[in-house]
Design goal:
Blueprint lengths: L1 E4 L4 E4 L6 E11 L4 E7 L4 H15 L7 E2 L6 E3 L6 E2 L1 H7 L14
Parallel strand pairs: 1-5
Antiparallel strand pairs: 1-3, 2-3, 3-4, 6-7
Length: about 110
């Protein structure tokens, strides 16, 4: 699954003040099929980034063997083509124990 925040910021209109509110669009794509999931958030913080992944996996009905982020600042401390340095929460999630079906095993 390839993931990133979409290039252009979208906007929604506040129905009381009628001022535009920026919305950041998360995009997850299964590259072989082109099947995509998108979701809008009011900020590009780490909690929203993680929630977006959970929602994408729920939408697709499972997890993928590979997760390919586009070195976004939300999840990556230092960009590097071959070995990016992930933020601590992401690094922990990527190294979380998995069972024989590659599903994450929860801690007790």
């Amino acid at each position: 699954m390839e993931v990133d925040w979409a290039g252009d910021t979208a906007f929604i209109l506040d129905n009381i003040s009628e001022k535009p509110i920026p919305v950041y669009v998360f995009v997850a794509v299964l590259p072989c099929s082109g099947y995509a999931y998108t979701e809008g958030f009011l900020s590009r913080n780490l909690d929203n980034w993680i929630s977006a992944h959970v929602h994408a996996y729920q939408f697709f009905g499972g997890i993928t063997r590979l997760l390919i982020p586009d070195n976004m600042k939300t999840g990556v401390e230092k960009a590097n083509w071959y070995s990016p340095v992930y933020k601590e929460q992401i690094a922990k999630a990527l190294k979380y124990p998995r069972n024989k079906d590659n599903l994450i095993i929860g801690k007790k």
